[in-house]
Amino acid sequence: xxxxxxxxxxxxYLSDALTLLTGWTREGEQIRRTxxxxxxxxxxxxxxxxxxxxxxxxxxxxxxxxxRTQIRVGHGDGAPLSEGEVLLAARIxxxxxxxxxx
Length: 102
Hints:
It is an enzyme of class 4 (lyase). Its EC number is 4.2.1.96. One of its GO terms (molecular function) is 4-alpha-hydroxytetrahydrobiopterin dehydratase activity. The chain is of the alpha+beta class. It contains three helices and four strands, in the order H-E-E-H-E-E-H. A four-stranded antiparallel β-sheet has the order 1-2-4-3, covered by helices on one side. A hairpin with a 2-residue loop joins strand 1 and strand 2 (30-36). Helix 2 runs antiparallel to helix 3 (83-100). The longest helix has 18 residues, at 39-56. 16% of the residues are buried.
């Protein structure tokens, strides 16, 4: 990850960080990730995400359809993405690797 310099905008810094999060896509001021995992993995992931989200005072949207878990991070109300939301996405990736063993 690049270091934040005074001449760079915060938005550019967050965009750089997002490029390191493989599988996440940006939709306006939200980021989204779809994971193909089973019900047991979904439950374990959801619990891990809840712990991190509570610590960061954030509320990601996690939904389940068929064999897919969809996660959205961000407000969606026009507020820009924050460092905490990008950090949450990175922690979700860590939790995903833990529950899937990959």
